[in-house]
């Protein structure tokens, strides 16, 4: 009697919790956003544009630092011919040139510098497009979570079966060339 009762209790628990267990099951996947972005032709164009802009800004900043170095070398070469007042004036001019170079460098490459604003301006639309496509893929394949392998989230292992990178590329209309 006890055996039958305990079997019935176990079966009842299985029937009660089994549907809840399947409802709690979540489907995970991952993709590589950097790989997807590198497959987008417009991303390569934007990167080239940013590279050219960075080189231009870098040249501008280096020019200011070079000018300060040139002024310093000239001061050393003519130092013996100058009065102390003239040395102070030139040293002050050199200091101002270095400060100008540092300020320009910060304006261009600093935290809210022009370069990073341009990065956002050029790449944000592409990243938004990928993000929206990821959402489409998740809904299409019934995923609860999709991790980005290129982001710093610490995936130590990922089964390739759960890799949805190709689906994201397919949804973006990017056909693999391999």
Summarize the structure.
By secondary structure, the chain is mainly α. Helices cover 72% and strands 4% of the residues.
User: How many whole angstroms does the radius of gyration measure?
Assistant: 31 Å
Please estimate the helix content.
over 70%
With strands numbered from the N-terminus, the spatial order across the biggest sheet is 1-2
Task: List the secondary-structure elements in sequence, H or E.
Answer: HEHHHHEH
General shape: rod-shaped
Overall tally of structural domains: 1
Beta content comes to: under 5%
Number of helices: 6
The CA-CA distance between the termini, in Å, is 67 Å
Uncertain spans, ≥5 residues at pLDDT below 50? Answer: none
What does the largest sheet look like? 2 strands, parallel
Structural class: mainly alpha
Structure description:
This protein has 178 residues and is mostly helical. It has one domain (16-172). It is 72% helix and 4% strand. The protein has six helices and two strands, in the order αβααααβα. It has helices spanning 2-24, 33-39, 41-78, 84-109, 114-140, 165-172; strands spanning 28-31, 145-148. A two-stranded parallel sheet has the order 1-2. The longest helix is centred in the middle third of the chain and has 38 residues, at 41-78. It is rod-shaped, with a radius of gyration of 31 Å. The protein starts with a helix and ends in a 6-residue tail after the last helix.
